[in-house]
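Bit of a strange request maybe. I'm writing a small parser for structure token strings and I need a real example to test against, not something I typed by hand. Could someone generate the tokens for this chain?
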Amino acid sequence: MTRRLVLPILCVAFWLSAASGAAAAPEGTLTIAMHFSPVTRWLDPAEGESTITPYLLLYALHDGLLKPMPGVGSGPSLAQSWAMSKDMLSAEFTLRPAKFHNGEPVTAEDVKFSFERYRGGAAKVLKDAVKEVQTPAANRVRFVFREPWPDFGAFFGTFVASAGWVVPKKYFERVGEEGFRKAPVGAGPYKFVSFNPGVELVVEAFDGYWRKQPSIKRIVFRSLPDETTRAAALKSGEVDLAMLLSGPTAQEIKRTPGMRLAAPLLGIFWLDFPEQWDPKSPWADKRVRMAASLALDRQALNEAETLGLSRPTGSIVPRDFEFALPLDPHPYNPARARQLMAEAGYPNGFDGGELTPFPPYNSMGETIQGWLQAVGIRTRVRTMERGAFMTSWREKKLRGVVLTISGVSGNAATRLESFVTKTGAFSFGSLPEVDDLFRRQATELDRKKRDVLLHQLQRVLYEQVTQAPVYHLGFPIGVGPRVDDIMATAIPGFYMSPYEDLKLRR
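Reply from user aminoacidic:
Good idea to test on real output. This should exercise your parser:
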């Protein structure tokens, strides 16, 4: 009896295995309509600017030792485990068995190489703090710091920096910088197929990804900067996800049968005043900067731009960040703003120069321009392509008023470093008191004392109106009928769930 059952059982087992394998094989194409034009440098972790934008692409192609993961702001990825020393003078990682898209294993040498060639937005703070990167074994890496650094993980393992995102050393040395840009190799869930700068990036499922095999075979990141074009492409079925739909366009998608909106909370918008550091500029007067802040009707802007999904705020640090000081926004008070302008010596207003909005938030910039003009601050809206904006911002070439946004994650210190300290990648200047407080908190091992120092720092920024925060952006994404839930809040501060978790409806 037993012998007669062996063959049927084996056949059933084989069939179940084959069926399971067939079901798990990646299928279909997901097309994402992006709200910006991608540039080549955003495919290379070494170039990662301290903003969320490049990670929309990096998260597909590459992987890091630590990175924001579902439910956590930073969690082990290529690192199987890691630990800081008790004296906070070093951090050690044990790598999990993983491989790059070309089949080479991910090793400690690759980690060291990737860190050393990193030149992105947080390069200075990381390189200044790290004394040495040691590789005691092929699967172990140790970072040694010049002084105790409790925030290493917050800088290294979040969207602040891509210094811990690993590329293959041997491949890079074989093809060189230009070859790597043309055909990047990573360790992420999707491998590179093709890239037409400013047009689209095409990636394909990597069946050797350590976490899980992706469900979707191919993802196309298509550049459609015009919002109405993105919405039309979503409604026609040409694309499956349309990033950043605002106002009436978002309402239309929301009302369309089979369509829906997802809205992760991403970066915080604020007005920056680059010329406040010039004592001859009107912007050097705190009363003028306060007038600009009081001119903003944040809730009206929220309703018009994001259907009320955003959260007006008085800080560039999200309230749920560690060490954040909750601050309410300045109230909308144009009468008080005009009074402050007169007190500052500008009863008839002044020429505030250019107002440059972060692309593609041009309509938001135009609305703010009108409110500023109503209190006497006359500006001219200057529109830019996102890659050019990022370069000008980082090279400190922007003037007048800058409407910008950041999705830098981590904690209050990592969010502030790039924008308010004298060495910050996007800082036009700094207050000596702020630099001193930042320096002191960076090596403070007592959490309560750090909390006090960082709260004091945020209070100074608020009282001096070095920026005029607007709101924490609720980022509307149009979702087409072929797409399952994108889990827009799965990864704190990111657009959606990991790409390998996304599914198309069969």
